[in-house]
């Protein structure tokens, strides 16, 4: 029976672990005590470097890999004892364009996947038409999918994943291989699914600019463990405090050794860029003074906003995750 969903979360992952036994008999932990709670109507980015444990976690959510321990509740249904019900709560696009049948038309794909998921008759026809119109593919419904662009194939895969109207949509690299325009269409579509239809949209992606534009919240997994789980705004703010970039011209050789250790110095087309943490106005003025004393010409000094890529790299490089955030926050 479905567990009453009183938490307002459509996905709850509790103490989830997965271990594999290697050929030499040692045990390898791919996913290590992961806890996540994802809201209805949220676009959630699940990030990690290669081999971090994203796919293993997603596969456990999709019932493709059995957890070693822990629980996954999808809209209140436990993927263990209530696998069938739990699977009805999700639509999954794991390998994008490979999720659909290329020799079939768009319409035939929807009929096929719809029937596979227990839909039939008028309801299936109406749902298919609605999805194809929504995804601006209605005019191409009778065309063979093989001849579609990658972006269109990806949209058909999403339509097939949504055919039974699940509350949760999971997508692995939804914008991989798409051009700029198709990427924009995909981002707008996923955002609309979350905002207008209150779907919980979970994406994995290595394209951090896409994640930054698209996601409300981000979790970062590293060596099987969650090292950050926050709203995007919080994550960026956490790492953005007091970070400055100063532009100047002139010889910086002597200045470099007098800079605080966390500062980086680069030169671009004759302009020297000094980037690093500044904790107070006094510290900023002191540094500007040093630059002038050096005989350099000051061009500009401005606070900088970190992007998700910087935040990701800092967290992953320092491995300690948010537990050490104050130390990292200084490393602008
Ligand atoms: N069936 C398996 N047997 C043994 N080890 C596995 C198995 N599946 C995954 N692993 C290991 O578990 C770790 C996590 O793999 P996973 O595929 O979840 O990473 P990922 O974050 O999805 O990486 P990528 O971004 O490269 O897809 C890796 O070290 C991988 O080699």
Overview of the structural elements:
This protein is α/β, with parallel strands linked by helices. The protein folds into 2 domains: 9-236, Rossmann fold (3-Layer(aba) Sandwich); 241-332, Alpha-Beta Plaits, CATH 3.30.70. 35% of the residues lie in helices and 28% in strands. It has 12 helices and 14 strands. The strands form 3 sheets. Strands 6-7-8-3-9-10 form a 6-stranded mixed sheet, with helices on both faces. A 4-stranded antiparallel sheet has the order 2-1-4-5. A hairpin with a 2-residue loop joins strand 12 and strand 13 (271-277). The longest helix is centred in the middle third of the chain and has 16 residues, at 180-195. Adenosine-5'-triphosphate binds next to strand 2 and helix 1.
Helicity level: 25-40%
Question: How large is the share of residues in beta strands?
Answer: 25-35%
Return the structural class: alpha/beta
What is the global morphology? Answer: elongated
Total of domains:
2
Query: What name goes with the CATH superfamily of the largest domain?
Result: P-loop containing nucleotide triphosphate hydrolases
Instruction: Using the CA coordinates, give the radius of gyration.
Output: 24 Å
Bound ligand species: adenosine-5'-triphosphate
Order of helices and strands: EEEHEEHEHHHEHEHEEHEHEEHEHH
Structural features:
332 residues; alpha/beta; Rossmann fold; 2 domains; four-stranded antiparallel beta sheet; 12 helices; disordered C terminus; binds adenosine-5'-triphosphate; ATP-binding; ATP binding; ATP hydrolysis activity; ABC transporter ATPase
């Amino acid at each position: 029976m479905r567990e009453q969903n009183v938490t307002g979360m459509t996905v709850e992952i509790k103490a989830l672990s997965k271990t594999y036994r290697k050929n030499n008999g040692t045990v390898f932990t791919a996913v290590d005590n992961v806890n996540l709670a994802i809201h209805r109507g949220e676009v959630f980015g699940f990030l990690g470097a290669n081999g971090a444990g994203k796919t293993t976690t997603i596969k456990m959510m999709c019932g493709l890999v059995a957890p070693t321990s822990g629980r996954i509740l999808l809209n209140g249904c436990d993927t263990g004892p209530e696998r069938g019900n739990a699977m009805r709560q999700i639509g999954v696009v794991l390998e994008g364009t490979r999720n659909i049948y290329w020799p079939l038309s768009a319409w035939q794909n929807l009929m096929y996947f719809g029937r596979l998921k227990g839909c039939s008759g008028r309801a299936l026809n109406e749902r298919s038409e609605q999805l194809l119109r929504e995804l601006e593919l209605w005019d191409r419904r009778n065309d063979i999918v093989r001849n579609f662009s990658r972006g269109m194939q990806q949209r058909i895969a999403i339509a097939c994943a949504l055919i039974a109207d699940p509350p949760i949509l999971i997508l692995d690299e939804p914008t991989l291989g798409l051009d700029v325009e198709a990427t924009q269409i995909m981002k707008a579509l996923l955002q609309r699914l979350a905002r207008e239809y209150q779907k919980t949209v979970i994406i994995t992606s290595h394209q951090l600019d896409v994640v930054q534009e698209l996601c409300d919240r981000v979790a970062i997994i590293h060596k099987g463990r969650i090292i950050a789980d926050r709203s995007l705004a919080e994550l960026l703010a956490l790492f953005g405090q007091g970070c400055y970039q100063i532009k100047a011209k002139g010889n910086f050789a002597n200045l470099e050794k007098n800079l605080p250790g966390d500062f980086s110095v680069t030169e671009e087309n004759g302009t020297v860029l000094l980037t690093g943490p500044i904790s107070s106005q006094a510290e900023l003025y002191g540094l500007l003074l040093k630059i002038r004393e050096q005989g350099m010409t000051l061009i500009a000094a401005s606070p900088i906003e970190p992007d998700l890529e910087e935040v990701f790299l800092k967290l992953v490089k320092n491995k300690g995750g948010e537990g050490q955030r104050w130390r990292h926050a200084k490393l602008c």
